Amino acid sequence: MRNRPRGSHLGLMLLASQLFQMGLDNIPPVTLAVLGLNVYLYLFPAAPLMQACVSVQQAYWLKDWRRLLLAPLHHVDDWHLYFNMVSFLWKGTKLERQLGGRWFLYLLSVFSLLTGVVYLLLEAGLTELTQDQSYSMACAVGFSGVLFALKVLSNHYHPGGVTYVMGFPVSNRYVSWVELVLIHITSPGSSLIGHLAGILVGLLYTAGPLKAVMKKCAGLVTSNGYNFQPSMYYNSSGTSGYSGTSGGNSGNHQHPPDYTTSYGSSSTGGLTEQEQLEAAIRNSLNDRDRTSQSGAPPPYGFHLSEEARAEEIRLRRLRRFDS
Questions:
Q1: I need a surface site. Which of 210, 218, 229, 295 has the fewest CB within 10 A?
Q2: Each residue's pLDDT tens digit, 43-53
């Protein structure tokens, strides 16, 4: 791990350009705040990189546990920051709109901490397995591990799609693993174990007990009755997406998770805006037909019988000659 080089900050300028092209109003608040925190800590780091990165030696042997909090929010250089934040901008915007700001912030906090813990466990395991102390001294820094966890989560919510990696279509189910290998090949200085830790944390949430544990902890903390839960689940492929209120672990694809929509008091059921508008018009017409059949006035405007309407037209025609 080297100290941060002094450069032209071209990565920061490109990141600013990306933000303004997207529009700050179009970025959800938690995503924007976390992105801003990463940029701030790059410009004004809470600690030098050698004191912020996380390793078995520093965190476990020397008991410097604060590195678990510092490492995800510090970056080696502006390009490291740029690529991580552009990736987070896309993933964060999509996931925060799906899950709701409170749960997304909770998710980021757990993923950031747990990615570091899993990284330490993997490095300690490699040290024991190979008897090579260099694994315990390897120090990692950056938001990449969290991004890999978010990628697993995003792909879990949108199964069946494909992502193009270097021009080749890859199923969303396997794209995280393909990118893990490619990044390690094209950027040998990147932390393979750190990225792997992120994938494993994402799998713990989607296919393991992590989500259930997080929901349990959230329920204990928010005992005032506030529903601190993910606010929506939407599956664009239509293969396993549902909307409901029952509990359960989203890792089991055969049972609907307990997401409810965040776009209002009623569920959209996965309909597009056009389909929702058409459904509303049909419902309005049906209500009008049922009302007319029951003899009650419709809910909007005035209702005249056919005879009354004809009489009104006749009187208006006669009034034209009165003038």
A1: 295
A2: 999 999 999 99
Q: Which H or E element spans position 108?
A: helix 101-130
Sequence-distant (≥ 6) Cβ neighbours of residue 189 within 8 angstroms: none
Q: Is 169 helix (H, G, I), strand (E, B) or coil?
A: strand
pLDDT at 313: 61
Catalytic residue, chosen from 112, 136, 144, 243, is: 144
The helix (H) or strand (E) run that includes residue 94 is helix 78-99
DSSP 170-225: EETTTHHHHHHHHHHHH-TTS-HHHHHHHHHHHHHHHTSSHHHHHHHHHHHH-TTS
195 given a catalytic annotation: yes
In this prediction, residues 154-159 reach a mean pLDDT of 85
* Residue of 75, 195, 231, 243 marked active site: 195
What is the C-alpha to C-alpha distance for residues 26 and 55, in angstroms, rounded to an integer? Answer: 37
Q: Tally Cβ neighbours within 10 Å of residue 41.
A: 18
Using CB atoms within 10 Å of the CB of residue 17, give its burial: 0 to 12 exposed, 13 to 18 middle, 19+ buried: exposed
Contact between residue 124 and residue 60 where contact means Cβ atoms under 8 Å apart: yes
Q: Does the active-site annotation cover 75?
A: no
